[in-house]
Structures are given as C-alpha cells and as structure tokens.
Amino acid sequence: MRLLQTGAADVLRLDVMTVGGITGALPVISVAHRLGAPVSLHISPETSIQLACGVPGVRDVETFDCSGNRFDPAHVLVEGGPAFAASSSRSD
C-alpha cells in the first residue's frame, strides 16, 4: 500500500488468496480504490471473479491458460478450473 500512497505504483495487481481470500482482499481493494489506483486480480479466477463483479475499483481479472505457461504454476497445485475461450475486454 505504501507504493500506491507514494505514487511509486499506479495499479495494484492483487493475488486474492495470498492476502487472505475475499475477506483479506476487501480492505486492500478499498484503499487502492480510495487512492484512485485500479486493481487487477490474478490467480484463483474462481474467487477473483466474485470481487470483480461486485467491488468498485476492480478493473480486471487476469487469467492464463495453464498448459505451457511457465509464469503460472497453478496447474501443478490444482486440477480443473475455468474453460478458456476467445479473449474479450470491457471498459469501465
């Protein structure tokens, strides 16, 4: 949060599960929103989508096709997950 408060970062890329799930993420997102920093959620899309649909300040949810993505090790931790189709974007 200090990075946002000092202007060293202009967007918050948040891993919801790392900060304690939805309960832990809500106050972090609230501070970022108050400071005018958009929030980009990543990893755990099943949880992140819930926040993106109902919490002000959440800009997007990053998802990756885990097969062959060396930057996202989630496929070695869990099985299943969302099905991926053609990409889309939304504007706020």
Describe it.
By secondary structure, the protein is α/β, with parallel strands linked by helices. It has one domain. The protein is 30% helix and 14% strand. The chain has 3 helices and 3 strands. The protein has a 3-stranded parallel sheet with strand order 1-2-3, covered by helices on one side. It is elongated. The two termini are 23 Å apart. The model has no long low-confidence stretch (mean pLDDT 79).
Secondary structure: elements and pairs:
Blueprint: H1 2-5, E1 12-15, H2 21-34, E2 39-42, H3 45-54, E3 58-62
Parallel strand pairs: 1-2, 2-3
- Radius of gyration (CA) equals 14 Å
Work out the number of β strands: 3
Mean pLDDT comes to 79
- The secondary-structure class comes to alpha/beta
Structural shape: elongated
Return the domain count. 1
Oligomeric organization of the protein chains: single chain
- Order the strands across the largest sheet as they lie in space: 1-2-3
The parts where pLDDT drops under 50 for at least 5 residues are none
How much of the polypeptide forms β-strand, as a percent range?
5-15%
Helix-strand pattern: HEHEHE
Straight-line distance between termini: 23 Å
Profile the largest sheet: 3 strands, parallel
